[in-house]
Amino acid sequence: GAGVSQTPSNKVTEKGKYVELRCDPISGHTALYWYRQSLGQGPEFLIYFQGTGAADDSGLPNDRFFAVRPEGSVSTLKIQRTERGDSAVYLCASSPSSAMGTGELFFGEGSRLTVL
Amino acid sequence: AQRVTQPEKLLSVFKGAPVELKCNYSYSGSPELFWYVQYSRQRLQLLLRHISRESIKGFTADLNKGETSFHLKKPFAQEEDSAMYYCALPKRYQLIWGAGTKLIIKP
User: Fold this and answer.
1) Is the pLDDT of residue A76 over 90?
2) CB A91 within 8 A of CB A35
3) Which of A69, A94, A98, B58 could form a disulfide bond with A75, CB atoms 3.0-4.6 angstroms apart?
4) In angstroms, what CA-CA distances link B90 with A11, A60, B68, B86?
5) Is B44 in contact with A43 (Cβ distance < 8 A)?
6) Is A57 near chain B, with CB under 8 Å?
7) Computed from CA positions of residues B38, A109, A112, B33, in that sequence, does the dihedral angle turn out positive or negative?
8) Which of A4, A23, A45, A89 to substitute to test the interface with B, most B CBs within 10 Å?
9) What's the rounded Cα separation, in Å, for the pair B1 and B14?
10) What CA–CA distances, in Å, run from A56 to A33, A46, A71, A95, B12?
11) Is the Cβ–Cβ distance between A43 and A37 less than 8 Å?
12) Is residue A90 a contact partner of residue A10, using CB atoms and an 8 Å limit?
């Protein structure tokens, strides 16, 4: 595809349920990032992958959150025992390499998660 | 701690008027800073970076280390500039983001 693809675009779930959010980055991009954006706030870093490995997971808020990227392409963000406070837009971004030199991240449209 | 502050949640100006979106940062060292933009129903995208000293869509931003600011400016606003604007600062592998400013250009 031409850009970063995220599915689902919208997810409504009940408190306590398990959720998976998927990100398909731009082909050839080795770096992949997950951010979370709450209403009225800027994106908040969750985790960064370089290839298959999580190079920095310091932004994951607690052990209910986990992310994988087993083949170095598609990534899945997994949230266990969801809480109402997890409601947010989850953004995925990719870049050709660790892009902090250029600062250019290519974002998906986001997955809006609502926990009732 | 590294931090980015965008003091205005909303800025509304008339078409043709000058625009200045404020961004202040806290960082020890020589920062690189970026402006991202999100137009209605579109994804977040890079607008410009200070290191390239470029003008994109008529916007410029100058890094002022004395005032720790990186304000985004445009001399004559256009209706298509209406969007959310975010200032961002790299920290290792991540970007630290401001809360964003919603810019509305009135006809």
Assistant:
1) yes
2) yes
3) A69
4) 30, 18, 15, 13
5) yes
6) no
7) negative
8) A45
9) 37
10) 9, 8, 17, 15, 38
11) yes
12) no
Tell me which residue of B105, B100, B107, B104 sits closest to B8, measured CA to CA.
B100
Give the span between the Cα atoms of A101 and B72, in whole angstroms: 20
Structure tokens at B20: 């200045």
8 A C-beta contact, residue B100 and residue B88: no
Chain A residues closer than 8 Å to B46 by CB: 103-105
Digit-coded pLDDT (tens) for A14-57: 999 999 999 999 999 999 999 999 999 999 999 999 989 998 99
